[in-house]
Specification:
Structural class: alpha/beta
Number of strands: 7
CATH topology of the largest domain: Oxidized Rhodanese, domain 1
Number of helices: 10
Strand content: 5-15%
Helix content: 40-55%
CATH class of the largest domain: Alpha Beta
Oligomer: single chain
Shape: elongated
Number of domains: 2
Largest sheet: 5 strands, parallel
CATH architecture of the largest domain: 3-Layer(aba) Sandwich
Radius of gyration: 19 Å
Order of helices and strands: EHEHEEHEHEHEHHHHH
Amino acid sequence: MNAEMKEISAREFKAILNEGDPVQVVDVREHVEFGAEKVEGAVCMPLSAFEEHAVHLEKDRPVYLICRTGGRARQAAEKLAKAGVRDFYVVKGGLEAWKAAGFETHKEAGAVWGLERQVRFAAGALVVSGVAFSWWVHSACAVVAALVGAGLMFSAVTDTCGLAMLLAKMPWNRGTQENSCRK
């Protein structure tokens, strides 16, 4: 972790928000994730296009970075540090820690499934299809299930997910991009 990076707990973050001081809450998850559930008052600046959006941050107000579990927020913090921003904090454990502490989130009615849920569905569908086709069509179709399993293991080891990156580019996940990133 960068020596300049500061992490705060979800409880500390909630206390800061309750004080009412002018802060900037930046959610670095992808648009579809942000649209499905977020901390009230947060703005969306996806890590995938963070530099493009980060230029709009106010330099005289602290920045609080949040994502699902904290990993992407730390990556965004490193980018802020390289850009010379000094007053920023990472919410340790992200939105999951926020919810575990019992704090409310804002959920959009009728929102598209979150990206993680889409990944689980797509991976499951690919595995079931690969196994079914290996029974009914050709045994080589079992390779599909094996590749999905290998991809999931690679995803866990590297803390990245190619399937999530692919799904994030799908039209149903980009539909609210313009609206979800506005303050």
